[in-house]
Design goal:
The chain has 383 residues and is of the alpha/beta class. The protein has 2 domains: 1-50 and 352-383, Urease, subunit C, domain 1 (Roll); 51-349, TIM Barrel (Alpha-Beta Barrel), CATH 3.20.20. It has helices spanning 69-81, 96-111, 153-162, 179-188, 202-210, 232-239, 256-270, 315-326, 330-335, 339-345; strands at residues 2-10, 15-17, 19-24, 27-33, 40-49, 51-56, 58-59, 62-63, 84-91, 124-131, 167-172, 192-195, 215-216, 245-248, 271-274, 286-290, 293-298, 301-304, 307-308, 362-365, 371-376, 379-380. Helix 2 runs parallel beside helix 3 and helix 7 (256-270) packs across helix 8. The longest helix has 16 residues, at 96-111. It is globular.
């Protein structure tokens, strides 16, 4: 049996002082309080659930669309070392046949994690995020315009079937003809719809919201700018309290002032921190691949054709940045990469909280949100 102790524990809903956790076979056997030491003791730290990233394309030199055991093993082990326990493998717009092959491969790996994580050292993909192909040409960012498609239920169903039912989130531009119909169809099939890569006006956004959309993809980025007479998609995202909203909190995609504005608008119940990380996360500067196109990385910026191409952010850095930018209480901040993404995607029964019987995937952070240790399956995860 292994034990963990710290100054406090935030379990996803409440704070417990002087926690003491017993771990057996990689799972939490009991949770108590009052003892000041353990196999691993973190004085002055807060224990919290491992992070859940709902928007990540790759890391450690690999892209999720490689859909191989080697790629998922490398990505997962790196993420585990940085506090992330679970993630949604996020695709990027590409030729349809390439996307279908990637989805089929990812589905097989999600169904059989032992093929890439036999020793339980890797963060695991528990679903898929389809970022494309139903995106706006005007706000496609780095997504290749030549492979974008108009919303099409038949094409969506091909993607859904190739993903083996693991597609859990889809980014959709509300202004595209047929977007509301596709949003309603995807929602009926259990796929959450996130609005993004969009030049949508207010009415177009409201139509897709009414059809079932529940979130916004990397708020502010690749999104129609706010206007005081035509608030557009951004105005709806910031003022609709039922909508979740992602944010890339790296100081590059969004400035500290914009992060604070977003926080004031969305609050602790609906804000979600993501990385939008690509293969260069955890790697030195150089050239990498996002989907099927090259990306140049230098000084923390991932660029392709003069446009930001994802990030090299990790969720532990996003958390520390967020606390520094906003001054938010630590327990509120922790919700943004645990409870909220789990609720938005419908995975709250699997991730985002600490409870007896669950896998012992936790983080230890200091009062500024800085990662002190990542515990994966009850073991300290090494970088």
């Amino acid at each position: 049996m292994r034990t963990l102790s710290a100054a406090s524990l935030w379990d996803g809903s409440r704070l417990l002082e002087n926690p003491f956790l017993a771990i057996e076979d990689g799972r939490i056997a009991s949770i108590g309080s009052g003892r000041a030491s353990g196999t691993h003791h973190f004085p002055g730290a807060t224990l919290a659930p491992a992070f859940f990233d709902v928007h990540i394309h790759g890391a450690a030199g690999h892209d999720v669309m490689e859909a191989t055991p080697e790629a998922l093993r490398a990505i997962g082990r790196f993420l585990a070392s940085r506090g992330t326990g679970s993630f949604l493998s996020t695709t990027v717009t590409a030729p349809l046949d390439m996307t279908l092959r990637a989805l089929d491969g990812l589905a097989r790996l999600i169904d059989h994690p032992e093929t890439f994580d036999a020793d339980h050292r890797a963060a695991r993909p528990i679903g898929i995020h389809l970022e494309g192909p139903f995106l706006s040409r005007a706000k496609c960012g780095v997504q290749p315009k030549e492979y974008l498609l108009a919303p099409d239920i038949a094409v969506f169903d091909k993607l859904y079937e190739a993903a083996g039912g693991h597609a859990r989130l889809m980014t959709l531009a509300p202004e595209l003809p047929g977007a509301a119909e596709l949003a309603a169809h995807a929602t009926r099939r259990g796929v959450r719809v996130s609005m993004g890569h969009s030049d949508a006006k207010t009415a177009e956004t409201r139509a897709v919201l009414a059809a079932g959309a529940i979130s916004a993809t990397h708020t502010f980025n690749a999104m129609r700018a706010l206007d005081h007479r035509e608030p557009g998609i951004l105005g709806i995202v910031l003022t609709t309290h039922t909508l979740f909203a992602e944010l890339v909190c790296d100081g590059i995609h969004t400035t500290p002032e914009i992060v604070d504005l977003w926080w004031r608008a969305k609050g602790p119940e609906r804000a979600i921190l993501i990385t939008d990380a690509m293969a260069a996360a955890g790697m030195p500067d150089g050239e990498y691949t996002l989907g099927n196109f090259p990306v140049q990385v230098a000084n923390g910026r991932a660029m392709a054709r003069g446009v930001l191409a994802g990030s090299v952010l990790t969720l532990d850095r996003a958390l520390a940045n967020f606390v520094a930018f906003t001054g938010a209480p630590l327990d509120d901040a922790l919700r943004l990469l645990t409870v909220n993404p789990a609720l938005m995607t419908g995975f709250a029964d699997q991730v985002g909280s600490i409870q007896v019987g669950a896998p012992a995937n936790l983080v230890a952070v200091d009062s500024a949100g800085v990662l002190l240790a990542s515990i994966h399956q009850g073991e300290l995860a090494a970088a």
